[in-house]
Every structure is written in C-alpha cells, then in structure tokens.
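RECORD TYPE: inverse folding
INPUT: structure tokens
STRUCTURE:
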C-alpha cells in the first residue's frame, strides 16, 4: 500500500450483515434489546475508524502550505493518535511528536494532525504508521528534514496475551537532515522530551 493508495467505498450494509454473523457466532442473542442496533452501529464505527482508506494525505492537507523564509526547526508535541493494529484489529493509542526544518515552505499545524489521522485510520503497525507520517510530511512541503516520535499503548498487549498493562511502545522515523546530522536529531529529541 503506497502513500496514495485509496480503497473503494465501504458497503455499510454488507459490513452490518457480517457484524450480525460475528455477534451470533460469539453466542449472542441478536434479538435482545441492547443489541438491536449494534450491527448498524458497528458498521458505522468501522467505516469511521477506517476512513483513511478513503483519503489521501494530499486531500487532507488541501493546499494549506505557505511560503516562509524561516529555516529553524518547528516541533509540534503531543498530537493524539488513535489507530487499529493490523494483527488483532484492536486499538492502539497514544501521542506523536513531529518536527521539521523547512526549505521555504511550512504547513498549517492542524494539517499535521490531519496527516497523522489519515494514516492512523487504516489498519496499522506503529512502526509503519510512524514512517508514513514522516514521509507524507516531507513530501507535502519538500522539507529539509523531518522527525517523528510516537508513543502508544496497545490494547492487544494490555487486554490479552502477555497482559503487560503499563508498557509503551516508542517508535521514531527521521528523514533528511534529521537522519544525516546528529546535532539536528539531538535538538529534535531534546525539544520532544521537554515538558
Ligand atoms: Zn495487535
């Protein structure tokens, strides 16, 4: 799946039927009051949680790119991340910190969060999500360098299997000068860890 991959529209009725089958297989009584509208609600939720398949980073950025002569580092900390792991379809969530050095173009801050959302609302592993965010940001403004650090809790680890409730997974991706220049990378890591 490349950066510009776009899935087709989701057939909500079809997903609703699948959810009905799933609930029945679990052993549930589909006629009980509380579950009456659950398949429809699940289909709607799944459609929303996977909306990234029907978006591209170009669309979500929507031209919010501006000329700038500044060439200092910009860091945005604590962007919320909500995603689904591709191994269990269980949520992982946490925070992401993004930094870049411009080469004449800057991007609206809210658009960085939209790029994160675009990739987070596909089935993911945290490592790939981190990389996809970094590459999409670099490509959207032709940045000199980009760094992304992501810290997430994985419910598939917390609720099942090893049940490690307090472990956080940390991933990072560095591109351009953030990769090539240790001083730039160190400055980014210092800013990320402040506060
Ligand atoms: Zn998982």
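DESIGNED SEQUENCE:
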């Amino acid at each position: 799946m490349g950066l510009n991959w776009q899935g087709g529209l989701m057939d909500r009725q079809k997903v609703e039927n699948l959810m009905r089958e799933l609930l029945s297989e679990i052993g549930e009584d589909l006629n009980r009051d509380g579950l009456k509208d659950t398949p429809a609600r699940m289909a709607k939720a799944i459609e929303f949680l996977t909306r990234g398949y029907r978006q591209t980073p170009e669309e979500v950025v929507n031209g919010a790119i501006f000329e700038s002569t500044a060439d200092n580092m910009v860091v945005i900390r604590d962007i919320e991340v909500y995603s689904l792991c591709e191994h269990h379809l269980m949520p992982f969530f946490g925070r992401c910190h993004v930094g870049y050095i411009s080469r004449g173009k800057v991007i609206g801050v809210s658009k960085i969060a939209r790029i994160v959302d675009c990739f987070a609302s596909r089935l993911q592993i945290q490592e790939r999500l981190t990389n996809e965010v970094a590459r999409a940001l670099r490509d959207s403004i032709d940045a000199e360098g980009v760094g992304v650090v992501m810290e997430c809790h994985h419910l598939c680890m917390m609720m099942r299997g090893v049940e490690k409730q307090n472990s956080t997974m940390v991933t990072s991706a560095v591109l351009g000068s953030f990769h090539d220049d240790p001083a730039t990378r160190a400055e980014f890591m210092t800013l990320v860890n402040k506060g």
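NOTES: The first strand starts at residue 65 and ends at 67.
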